[in-house]
Model the fold of this input.
Amino acid sequence: MITCEESKTICSKNQYKEASWSERFNMYLHVLMCKTCFKFSRKNTKLTGLCNEASLQALSDTEKSELKNKLGQNS
Done:
């Protein structure tokens, strides 16, 4: 049986489709018996869905550099 900390890590990996089949299976077994991890997993899944719906995008490296330069000029 995995620990709550391991379950949390696997849940986060699963969010990005990086968890193996055996990790997901072990996490689901743990979640069936642990209310705290069940709630965490459910909230994490909801957060992932909301982020996907929002179509969030990260800045490119060039845009990050430009923003840092602009912020540095205002100091």
Q: What stands out?
A: Residues 4-73 form one domain. The two ends are 53 Å apart (CA to CA). The helical segments are 4-15, 21-33, 35-54, 61-73.
